[in-house]
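Protocol step 4 of 5: obtain the predicted structure for the target chain.
Materials: sequence only (see below). No template structures provided, no constraints applied. The aim of this step is simply to have a reference model before the mutagenesis design in step 5. Sequence pasted as it appears in the construct record:
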Amino acid sequence: MILFCLKVVILSHIPFPLPGLEVKQADLVENTLIITAVSTSEAAICPSCGQSSTRIHSYYLRSPHDLPSSGRLVQLQLHARRFRCQNEMCPRQTFAERLPNIIAVSAQRTLRLTKLLNAFAIALSG
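Step 4 output (structure tokens):
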């Protein structure tokens, strides 16, 4: 019962926005805040031909590193989708949805963390 109440409190107080995503679950495991989220868009644009698609091919999990929050590690679990391109002339048959406000196409860390690491690199490069 106490664990359930903790989840509700965490879900209502995530300390940063996740634009374009809906938070499905947030768990506190030891010193790590694990946030599970899914995309709210119904369609995605093919990066090759620009055609919009709603045909889902498959799902996969992306787990980028993110900035710590309130002294806790933050682990994102983003349930992303692969779509089928509906343009028969397109050379790309399937493509992964983009999460441009959160993470770059093939990045291992969020844009927030990348920006902070770049600032440290510039400040310390002397």
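Step 4 remarks: Residues 1-6 have pLDDT under 50 and may be disordered. The radius of gyration is 17 Å.
Proceed to step 5.
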